[in-house]
Design brief:
Distance between the termini: 46 Å
Helix content: 25-40%
CATH topology of the largest domain: Rossmann fold
Bound molecules: iron/sulfur cluster
Strand content: 5-15%
Strand order of the largest sheet: 2-1-3-5-7
Number of strands: 7
Order of helices and strands: EHHEEEHEHHEEHHHHH
CATH superfamily of the largest domain: NADH:ubiquinone oxidoreductase-like, 20kDa subunit
């Protein structure tokens, strides 16, 4: 790429709800400035033009078919930088729930009596994050990704800096937001072991942390268990909460903590 040329950026989507791409599109105020620094050449949710020539690929969604594996490998061969966008792509996300059941059970649950007719031509495989298939350069976590994290990531990348990835637990953000810990209300929470960066938004809005941003590096599982016990809570209840985002067994980033 010529140094004066704007980087060519592509967005791709695999198995997911496309909510993380929507977060990118919701940067309405910042988009004109962003577009003065990059050329977006592929973004199905926003434009019809497509190009197979790009420098940076943002990849959303987990991989759940053989066709997706082929397409993802092609993206890796083309892009200089590959960024996993959101939980589905980074850790397998909600899609990995299906890995807990047989395909017959999943189809029946979703399609009922018409299960036999569903997806006859698509061979689905256990869902997995993209780094179970290709090398990934950077991750933007969350379900969905926080808009401000996408913007600070892109700014750092365009300035030639290594983008920061938070590596402290959600509890820190939660304290800074002034929330009362849900442990005090007899509710368990994955905040002590989950990667921060979301301003503990779920606790702020009345629930608890479900672990959508994945584990911090080297999570202190023992301390988490001790804290739960101190509050009279059952550490097993935490395992159930991990069931939402912690089902990917084909990733080295499986969220279910190894004890
Ligand atoms: S991470 Fe969440 S919001 Fe983003 S695509 Fe997956 S399910 Fe949707
Ligand atoms: S355990 Fe949950 S509610 Fe308590 S401080 Fe940590 S993130 Fe907040
Ligand atoms: S509080 Fe937990 S579940 Fe909610 S957005 Fe943050 S990391 Fe995700």
């Amino acid at each position: 790429m010529d140094a004066k040329e704007k980087p060519r950026v592509a967005f791709f989507s695999f198995t997911c709800c496309e909510g993380c791409q929507l977060m990118v599109l919701s940067c309405e105020k910042e988009l004109p400035d962003i577009l003065s620094h990059i050329n977006i050449v592929n973004f199905r949710e926003a434009m019809t033009e497509k190009s197979d020539d790009y420098d940076i690929a943002f990849v959303e969604g987990s991989i759940s078919t053989k066709e997706e594996i082929k397409k993802l490998n092609k993206i890796r061969k083309t892009a200089r930088v590959v960024v996993a966008l959101g939980a589905c792509s980074s850790t397998g996300g909600l899609n990995c729930l299906k890995n807990r059941y047989s395909m017959e059970e999943v189809k029946e649950r979703v399609y009922g009596k018409k299960a036999a007719l569903s997806n006859r031509h698509v061979q689905t495989i256990p869902a997995r994050p993209i780094d179970a298939v290709i090398h990934v350069d950077y991750y933007i976590h969350g379900c969905p990704i926080p808009k401000k994290e996408f913007l600070s990531f892109l700014t750092a990348l365009l300035m030639g800096k290594k983008p920061d990835m938070t590596n402290h637990p959600v509890c820190v953000d939660c304290k800074m937001a002034g929330n009362i810990c849900v442990f005090e209300k007899g509710i368990s929470c994955l905040g002590p072991v989950t990667r921060a960066g979301c301003d503990a938004i779920c606790v702020t809005y009345g629930t608890w942390c479900w672990g959508c941003r994945g584990l911090v590096d080297d999570p202190n599982i023992n301390a988490h268990e001790q804290t739960l016990k101190r509050h009279g809570l059952d550490p097993e209840a935490v395992d159930k909460k991990f069931a939402l985002y912690g089902n990917c067994k084909s990733s080295n980033k499986c969220l279910t903590p190894k004890k």
